Amino acid sequence: MAVGERPSSCSSPQPALLGLGAALLSFCISAVLSQVPDPELLPTDPPKKPDPVTSETVVFWGLRLWQVIGIFSMFILAVIITLCCIFKCRIPRTKKEIEARHAQRVAAKDYANTLETVPPLNELTEIPGALPDTVSLSTVSEQVQARSASSSQLPVVREEEELTGPLTQPETG
C-alpha cells in the first residue's frame, strides 16, 4: 500500500452522509408540506345571504308577492264557488232555519196540490152578455182556418139546377 492510499475495504462516509441528509431533508419537507393547507380547502368568504322575502318582492313576470297571492286566492275561490254551485253543497244552518225551510216546502206542496184541484178559468168566469150554453169565443186563428176551409171547396152544382138556370129558357109549345 502506498502512502496516502486508503484500504479498499474502508469506504468514505460522504455518500452515506449524503443519502442520510437526503432522507432527512425529504422527511422534513413532507412534514412541512403536510401542514400547508390545500387552497381548495381554505375557508372562503361565506355565501351572501339572499334578500329577505317581503310582500314587495318581485316573484315572477314582474308581479309582486302580494299580487301573486291575490291572483292565486281568487282562482281558488272561483273554483270552490263553481264546485259548490254545480254540486249544491249544503251549508250548515241552525235548527230553526232547517225547520223553517221544511215548513216552507210543506206549505208550497200543499198550495200546489190545491191549485191542481181548481177548475180552469173559463169554467169559473161568466162572460157578460153570453149565453151559458154557447160555445166559447172563437179566436182569430180559428176564424181564418174556417174561411180557408170553406173557400178551398168549390161550389157543387147539381144537374137540375143547371137545366133550370137563368140562361136556359123552358120550351113553350
TrEMBL record:
Start and end residues of each stretch annotated as Disordered: 147-173
UniProt KW Transferase keyword: no
InterPro entries: TMIE (IPR032006)
Signal peptide per UniProt: 1-34
GO BP, one annotated term: inner ear morphogenesis
Pfam family, one: TMIE
Keywords: Membrane, Signal, Transmembrane, Transmembrane helix
Ranges that cross the membrane: 58-87
PANTHER family associated with the record: TRANSMEMBRANE INNER EAR EXPRESSED PROTEIN (PTHR28635:SF1)
Name this protein carries in UniProt: Transmembrane inner ear
Species, as recorded: Oncorhynchus mykiss
